[in-house]
């Protein structure tokens, strides 16, 4: 299998209800996403975009079908394994930021590292570095409610990347923001993408598709159109993956010797 | 693992600090339960240590023979507890006293027979006073001293009696009525001695000597036809011979009764057993009642935890989205319940001892502090926290992340 495939969905179905009342959020959905893609998913309300994102993000389960994440079949894994993978491989960005109001900004950013057992100092250092990157260093000990919407969303992005995940999932990250904050947030996402991160983003705003390398239009739980604007070999690759590959090649060479 | 535990601890602390008033009230529920358990255990502990002190004060060279039924029934435990008073007819008799006296190594034997009657003289009447029939050895065995006069003995007339300090005051309005007379059972008696006042009202004879009248047991038998011998106190030559001598007493009595064993011979700490067994039962009953208030406190914890869980549904959703497993969430909330109940316990132990101290100001008991009490309360706390914290924590852990994320206050 191609090393660069991060997500592979085949025959994915999500059904609500049974029998006559059954309705499908996703129907026989097939999708392959490669490392370094910036996928935007568009479509009318109720076409299954958010359901798709939740299933990819292991927050929800498909009724049927197969899902392979980073080479691991995750269709039928336990919920604790799901949690583990969420902590290690997935970063979430939500429309309404979803920061914990009782925690300071830096604690919010450090939160995912709690669940991969990092010591407190390591967590805070990593969170501080992530915040610094989004020019929020001075706001580290603020409460989320003391920040503007755009700042809160940048905190959320910092939280999403702090554990260095394989994929970043964004559910209308600019939905609650004015156009100025929107474009700042999109620039940040673009910068993250250029470092080789894989981003899957759901949006209503067609103007944002300029940032994407691939635009998928969904209709009634299925793919309507799927357009790639950047060739696969031109996708940015993360540094860590490159070094991993190099290491793998080296060890292969050693074995040959 | 320890890292995660520390994180949970910090989270729980933060959450408790955020809801100070609420957390304090929840702790108070637990604290009241723990305080009442501590108070009860501390007071009963002080009573039983008083009894033990009494025994060791008398000296450890004492053997006590008590009547008992043949041990053939399950109810014998209950009977043993109330052994002092419950027998319709005591199985011990005056011949047993002489049998025991003839056992080698025995230096003094004092039977104790209890009766009550109305005492009267020219001035006063005391109804249902304790009349204690015994022998002249009594004064050498018990830690008693005479204030005035002498104790009953062979040298005195049969009508000689000795009375306790309070009884002297009640009957004659003076502490020295030696030589004066009183009447009971239609007989006249002369007072030959008065005892010193005794501080401790609790002893292994179950008699308050301050209010008792002491007379010769043989005279008592003559008056009443039968004496109810509650116990026979035996003093021995040497502490190291306690066991062989008590065995000799047992076999001598057995022989005399053709094999019947309707008596018990005890020495050392077990002398206090009837009293301390009863005490244990009473105190555990009281502790169980106090335990009910602890259950109420536990329900308080559960209630507050449920509120906390539903208040923080959205937070749980976020935590799960960024990688918390159900187990992580479970531990987070169990820790919170745990800390609440530990705080309640610490508060409760302090409160309990404070109350015990206050009680000790007006009673002869001194608060009894022991690791057992702390261990018992700590253990109950753990149980309460686990029992009442688990359900809300499970409820939190089982929440589905997408539902929780959608939930807003």
Radius of gyration of chain A, CA atoms, in whole angstroms: 19 Å
* DSSP summary: helix tally of chain B: 14
Number of domains of chain B: 2
Radius of gyration of chain B: 31 Å
Can you give the helix content of chain B as a percent range?
Answer: 55-70%
For the largest sheet of chain A, list the strands in their spatial order.
6-7-8-3-9-10
Unreliable parts of chain B = 70-74, 83-87
What is the mean predicted local confidence, pLDDT of chain A?
A: 88
Structural class of chain B: alpha+beta
Sketch the topology of chain A as an H/E string, one letter per element: EEEHEEHEHHHEHEEEH
Q: How many strand elements of chain A?
A: 10
CATH superfamily of chain A: P-loop containing nucleotide triphosphate hydrolases
Low-confidence stretches of chain A: none
N-to-C CA distance of chain B: 33 Å
Task: Report how far the terminal alpha carbons of chain A are from each other.
Answer: 25 Å
β-sheet strand percentage of chain A: 15-25%
Q: Into which percentage range does the β-strand content of chain B fall?
A: 15-25%
Entry summary:
The complex is a heterodimer of chains A (257) and B (409). Chain A is α/β, with parallel strands linked by helices.
Structural summary, described in words:
The complex is a heterodimer of chains A (257) and B (409). Chain A is of the alpha/beta class and 257 residues long. Chain A has a single domain, classed as 3-Layer(aba) Sandwich (Rossmann fold). Helices cover 35% and strands 25% of the residues of chain A. Chain A has a six-stranded mixed beta sheet with strand order 6-7-8-3-9-10. In chain A, strands 2-1-4-5 form a four-stranded antiparallel beta sheet, covered by helices on one side. In chain A, strand 4 and strand 5 form a beta hairpin. The longest helix of chain A is centred in the C-terminal third of the chain and has 18 residues. Chain A is globular. The mean pLDDT of chain A is 88. Chain B is of the alpha+beta class and 409 residues long. Chain B folds into two domains: 181 residues, no CATH class; 170 residues, no CATH class. Chain B is 56% helix and 17% strand. In chain B, strands 1, 2, 3, 4, 5, 6, 7, 8, 9 and 10 form a ten-stranded mixed beta sheet that branches. The radius of gyration of chain B is 31 Å and the shape is elongated. The two termini of chain B are 33 Å apart. About 2% of the residues of chain B have low confidence.
């Amino acid at each position: 299998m191609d090393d660069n495939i991060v997500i592979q969905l085949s025959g994915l179905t999500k059904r609500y209800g049974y029998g006559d009342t059954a309705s499908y959020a996703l129907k026989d959905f097939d999708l392959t996403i490669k490392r370094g893609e910036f996928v935007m998913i568009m479509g009318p309300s109720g076409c299954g975009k958010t359901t798709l994102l939740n299933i990819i993000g292991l927050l929800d389960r498909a009724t049927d079908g197969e899902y392979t994440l980073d080479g691991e079949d995750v269709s039928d894994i336990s919920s604790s394994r799901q949690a583990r993978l969420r902590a290690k491989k997935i970063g979430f960005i939500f429309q309404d930021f979803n920061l914990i109001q009782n925690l300071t900004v830096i604690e919010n950013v450090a939160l995912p590292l709690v669940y991969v057992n990092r010591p407190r100092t390591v967590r805070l250092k990593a969170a501080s570095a992530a915040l610094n990157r989004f020019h929020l260093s001075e706001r580290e000990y603020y409460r989320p409610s003391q920040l503007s919407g755009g700042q809160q969303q940048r905190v959320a992005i910092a939280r999403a990347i702090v554990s260095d995940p394989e994929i970043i999932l964004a559910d209308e990250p600019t939905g609650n923001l004015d156009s100025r904050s929107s474009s700042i947030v999109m620039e940040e996402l673009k910068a993250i993408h250029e470092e080789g991160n894989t981003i899957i983003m759901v949006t209503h705003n067609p103007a944002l598709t300029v940032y994407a390398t691939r635009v998928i239009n969904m209709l009634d739980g299925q793919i309507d159109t799927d357009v790639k604007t950047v060739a696969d070999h031109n996708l940015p690759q993360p540094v860590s993956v490159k070094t991993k590959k190099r290491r793998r090649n080296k060890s292969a060479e050693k074995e040959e010797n | 693992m320890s890292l995660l535990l520390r994180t949970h601890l910090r989270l729980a602390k933060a959450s408790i600090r955020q809801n100070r008033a609420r957390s304090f009230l929840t702790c108070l529920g637990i604290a009241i339960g723990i305080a009442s358990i501590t108070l009860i255990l501390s007071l009963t502990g002080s009573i039983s240590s008083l009894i033990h002190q009494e025994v060791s004060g008398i000296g450890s060279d004492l053997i006590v023979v008590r009547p008992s039924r043949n041990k053939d029934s399950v109810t014998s435990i209950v009977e043993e507890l109330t052994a002092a008073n419950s027998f319709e007819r005591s199985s011990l008799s005056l011949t047993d006293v002489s049998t025991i006296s003839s056992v080698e190594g025995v230096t003094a034997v004092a039977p104790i027979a209890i009766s009550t009657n109305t005492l009267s003289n020219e001035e006063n009447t005391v109804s249902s006073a304790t009349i204690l029939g015994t022998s002249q050895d009594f004064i050498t065995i018990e830690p008693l001293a005479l204030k005035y006069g002498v104790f009953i003995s062979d040298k005195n007339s049969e009508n000689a009696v000795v009375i306790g300090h309070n009884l002297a005051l009640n009957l004659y309005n003076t502490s020295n009525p030696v030589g004066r007379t009183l009447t009971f059972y239609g007989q006249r008696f002369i007072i030959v001695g008065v005892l010193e006042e005794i501080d401790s009202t609790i002893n292994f004879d179950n008699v308050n000597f301050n209010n008792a009248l002491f007379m010769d047991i043989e005279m008592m038998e003559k008056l009443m036809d039968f004496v109810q011998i509650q116990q026979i106190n035996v003093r021995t030559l040497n502490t190291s011979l306690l066991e062989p001598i008590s065995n000799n007493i047992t076999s001598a009595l057995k022989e005399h009764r053709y094999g019947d064993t309707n008596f018990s011979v005890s020495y050392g700490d077990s002398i206090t057993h009837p009293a301390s067994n009863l005490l244990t039962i009473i105190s555990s009953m009281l502790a169980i009642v106090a335990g009910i208030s602890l259950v109420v406190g536990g329900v308080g914890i559960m209630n507050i935890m449920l509120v906390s869980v539903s208040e923080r549904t959205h937070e749980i959703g976020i935590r799960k989205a960024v990688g918390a497993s159900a187990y992580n969430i479970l531990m987070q909330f169990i820790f919170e319940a745990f800390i609440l109940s530990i705080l309640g316990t610490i508060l409760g132990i302090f409160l309990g001892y404070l109350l015990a101290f206050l009680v000790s100001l007006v009673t002869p008991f001194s608060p009894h502090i022991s690791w057992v009490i702390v261990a018992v309360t700590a253990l109950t706390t753990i149980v309460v926290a686990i029992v009442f914290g688990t359900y809300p924590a499970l409820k939190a852990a089982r929440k589905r992340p997408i539902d929780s994320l959608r939930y807003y206050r």
